[in-house]
């Protein structure tokens, strides 16, 4: 007889949330990619679990590379739900608190790789009074003025476009903005081909590790509490910990399931809701 929680694992694999098998890779992209997705750089640090080593690893690479290059690029690559954007947000927070870079900027690029949109977001980041610009030449001139004698740190979040020509064009434009050593770009992407295309040197990309079962359980408890004092009923904690083990180390899945478990007081109610959420994801994957 299949254990109820094994069904969660099976359904999670079906939508690519847990499995790393290539046969699920396309489906994971199909289900999880939102072409209109927008992200920002702000982070509630209380929700970050187990990412200090990843942040330190990327920062060490940036520190080493920026001493040698005008523009250094470190990709963060991995599965959907692994926490790439969270790591990038934490790095951005560290950069803003430190003195390694003069300016920290953020651009989300999930839909299409538009140089005007990316550079325009940079311009708005350094000058909040700037309206949205569509003239590339004007944007570049204003960026060059705004970043004169300054170093910048830029996050390109959720890159999907594999067109090397587009990246080469953007890199050339970024180099026009500043010729001073010490500028850096962190890219988040699910595609290793993009990471390889954009990284400053082979092998410099970083793949965040999966969380431990205990860390997934910590996320689930946070989501169950909703930031307050609510807790999972004592008799449901064992099954909650078992669910944490089925998250496959993916923080996004732990967050989704943690939110689902909030307010549940009975085991059958808890399981039925979890199954419903996983079945919804399974149904979406079949569209």
From TrEMBL:
Domain NB-ARC: residue ranges: 52-224
Domain of life: Eukaryota
One BP term from GO: defense response
Sample GO molecular function, one term: ADP binding
Record's keyword terms, sorted: Plant defense
InterPro entries: Apaf_helical, NB-ARC, P-loop_NTPase
Protein name: NB-ARC domain-containing protein
Species whose genome carries this gene: Salix brachista
Higher taxonomy: Eukaryota, Viridiplantae, Streptophyta, Embryophyta, Tracheophyta
